[in-house]
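Hi C.,

You asked whether I'd gotten around to modeling the 194-residue construct. I have! Everything is below, sequence then structure, no commentary in between.
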Amino acid sequence: MSPNKSNFWNMLLTLTIIALTAAFVLSYVEQLTGEPIKQAKDARELEAIASVVREFDNNPFAEKLTITAPNKKSRFELYPARQDGVINSFAIKTFSDNGFGGRIEMIVGFLMDGTINNFVVTQSQETPGLGTKINDEKFKAQFRGFNPERQKLKVRQDGGEIDAVTAATISSRAAVNAIQKAVDAYHNFNTGNN
């Protein structure tokens, strides 16, 4: 019986050493790759911001503000775009959890009067060839120059002015929902209720 006990403790010690070594290696690799991954993500977001706002010469990340929805439950990031020190447009990072494939994240650009300039879907699990068409030019073009104060920001099936992507109404509604959240959060911020 003594040899079995010895084998058990040897195996336990060996497994413990392996687990600790693996944890150390994973921690070290995460420290090495964490910053480059964050920098790459920030670069992709800055590229998305640049595609939805007017020309700017500032660093929108340095001036980023956190704003909240009127219900105070959701938080959004607002990035002001400045040219020669004057804000000429801004971008809001927004989302909707109502997509066909779950969460859709996007960055929406607005002009100073609240008119939508453009948007970019930055993350989604929508069906390729259907729901992913919310990031296509044909769908996005409807939003350029669209002012939610004067127009109904809903898909036509719900009484609005936006044509849904054929066979992807759920994804289209989710995109409109994400944009509406950004509009609501900006109005909440603009009225000082943030």
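If it helps when you're writing up: Strands lie at 65-68, 75-83, 86-99, 102-111, 116-123.

Thanks,
B.
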